């Protein structure tokens, strides 16, 4: 897409950006201290964090970023931006993607919404520097922007776990919704939907994209502080399924688990007093949890514990078995149907829904 050469990425970046350090963290890159390194980062095919937020527990998490250019391009290509396409962008951020939309479509066809007021203001300034003046609205992206609806395209620069009904309602029949996807288990994938005449939208997933989750669908970390309590007596057992097989080993399996074991998420613990390595599983209601322990010796048997109204490890195991029985399907074989009443995931066809375990 030739618009990439017409919109300089560096004009949309702050003086300090953060790049990945290769160890799961970030290192700051300051244009004033290292102009060459900063410019190299600006034009690398890598995501750059542009803003952090401090969580309630004191940890700092990225709250805004400049997506890697190759991912930006793929989203734009999946949106199929034909001439005259009225487009709603969810998540203005720095305004870079908004500028690409303007270069492709013209200012008058672009509406962009941003939940962070200072970010929206800076984006307007960045866009004005290139003489672009689309409608940039400070509002919650989950609500869309009804005054300019209907849209031929709704394009999100953040991920969702549930497609907001407002996006469906504000998309014209025949229009497309393109959004990165997320689940408790897997923050990966991109959904491409087409709005039907009957009001529903259907489409398939693509195996690319990892974006920040839209604000309103994030889980409050405070919910998890009381997941484990001394008065709990979990159900214990053993399993022959390795915890590594279901947590991070295969993106397609992770994606499948995210669809079929709703609300489940996991973390690894190597500091447990009674296990060499432990896989922790919990659900987003903070009422159920499970653990799978590796003792440092046996790789054919692992100790399990489960507590709460859900038996989360049993659900994971059953979902894993279904995935293997259906031929270990790739992400591109999955799809989603969205209606005003809800959404249903399916494999290969809407006639074969993928139901929760």
Structural class: alpha+beta
Low-pLDDT runs of 5+ residues are: none
Distance between the termini: 42 Å
Number of alpha- plus pi-helical segments = 8
Shape: globular
Tell me the strand order in the biggest sheet: 7-6-5-8-9-10-11-17-18
The proportion of residues forming helix, as a percent range, comes to: 10-25%
Number of strands: 18
Strand residues, percent: 25-35%
Give Rg in angstroms. Answer: 22 Å
Largest sheet: 9 strands, mixed
Characterize the structure shown.
- The longest helix is centred in the C-terminal third of the chain and has 14 residues, at 312-325.
- The protein contains 8 helices and 18 strands.
- It has a 9-stranded mixed sheet with strand order 7-6-5-8-9-10-11-17-18. The chain has a 5-stranded antiparallel sheet with strand order 12-16-15-14-13, with no helix packed on it. A two-stranded antiparallel ribbon has the order 1-2.
- The radius of gyration is 22 Å and the shape is globular.
- 21% of the residues lie in helices and 30% in strands.
- Helix 7 (251-260) packs across helix 8.
- It is of the alpha+beta class.
């Amino acid at each position: 897409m030739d618009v990439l050469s017409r919109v300089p990425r560096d004009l949309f970046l702050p003086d300090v950006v953060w790049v990945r350090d290769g160890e799961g963290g970030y290192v700051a890159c300051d244009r004033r201290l290292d102009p060459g390194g900063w410019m190299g980062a600006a034009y690398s095919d890598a995501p750059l964090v542009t803003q952090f937020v401090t969580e309630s527990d004191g940890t700092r998490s990225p709250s805004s970023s400049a997506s890697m250019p190759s991912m930006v391009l793929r989203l734009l290509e999946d949106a199929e931006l034909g001439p005259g396409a009225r487009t709603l962008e969810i998540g203005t951020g720095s305004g870079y993607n908004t500028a690409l939309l303007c270069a492709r479509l013209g200012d008058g066809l672009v509406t962009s919404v941003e939940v962070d007021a200072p970010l929206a203001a800076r984006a307007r300034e960045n866009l004005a520097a290139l003489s672009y003046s689309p409608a940039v609205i400070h509002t919650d992206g989950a609500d869309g922007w009804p005054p300019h609806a209907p849209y031929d395209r709704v394009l999100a620069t953040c991920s969702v776990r549930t497609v907001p009904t407002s996006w469906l309602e504000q998309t014209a029949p025949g229009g497309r919704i393109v959004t990165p996807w997320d689940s408790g288990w897997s923050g990966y994938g991109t959904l491409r939907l087409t709005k039907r005449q009957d009001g529903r939208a259907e489409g398939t997933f693509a195996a690319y994209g990892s974006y920040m989750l839209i604000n309103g669908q994030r889980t409050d970390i405070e919910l998890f502080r009381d997941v484990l309590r001394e008065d709990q007596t979990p159900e214990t057992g053993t399993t022959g399924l390795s915890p590594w097989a279901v947590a991070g080993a295969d993106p397609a399996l992770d994606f499948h688990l995210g669809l079929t074991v709703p609300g489940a998420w996991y973390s690894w613990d190597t500091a447990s007093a009674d296990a060499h390595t432990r896989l922790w599983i919990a659900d987003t209601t903070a009422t159920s949890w499970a653990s799978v322990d590796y003792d440092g010796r046996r790789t054919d048997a692992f100790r399990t514990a489960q507590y709460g109204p859900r038996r989360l490890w049993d659900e994971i195991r059953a979902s894993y078995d279904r995935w293997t029985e259906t031929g270990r399907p790739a992400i591109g074989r999955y799809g989603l149907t969205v209606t005003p009443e809800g959404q249903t995931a399916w494999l290969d066809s809407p006639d074969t829904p993928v139901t929760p375990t």
